[in-house]
Design goal:
This protein is of the alpha+beta class. Helix content is 19%, strand content 40%. It is globular, with a radius of gyration of 13 Å.
């Protein structure tokens, strides 16, 4: 498996947020937004462990294909914390727009949501 390597900045957050996740594993931001609009999404209280800041061009490309493997997602500390009873996620942003990702240990954006 070849991981896509793009330049990014990482900021530690540990910030609680309400995120509306799309239903299932969807491949792009356009489909995620459509799914949330159509079905209402699945609101969840999550802990955002860190923020990944991409260039506008890389963020745009990232949002076209969530099934691409990325180095910045490889060790993202995502999953579910049974003690906190919260999903552990990361925020991926270009500084003006963002998505929340739970990789569940994979190197691709397995579950993608939008902050409320």
């Amino acid at each position: 498996m070849k991981l896509k390597d793009i330049e990014y900045k990482e900021v530690v957050k540990n910030e609680g947020k309400i995120v509306v996740f799309a239903c299932g594993k969807l491949s792009s931001l356009k489909i995620v937004k459509s799914d949330i609009k159509k079905y209402g999404g699945d609101p969840e209280d999550v802990l955002i462990k860190k923020e990944i800041i991409l260039s506008k061009e890389d963020f745009k490309n990232f949002n076209k294909d969530y099934f691409e493997d990325y180095k910045f997602l490889k060790n993202a500390e995502c999953g579910y914390d049974t003690e906190l009873e919260k999903s552990l996620c990361i925020r991926v942003t270009d500084g003006s727009e963002s998505v929340v990702v739970n990789t569940e240990g994979y190197s691709y954006a397995r579950h993608v949501g939008l902050e409320k």
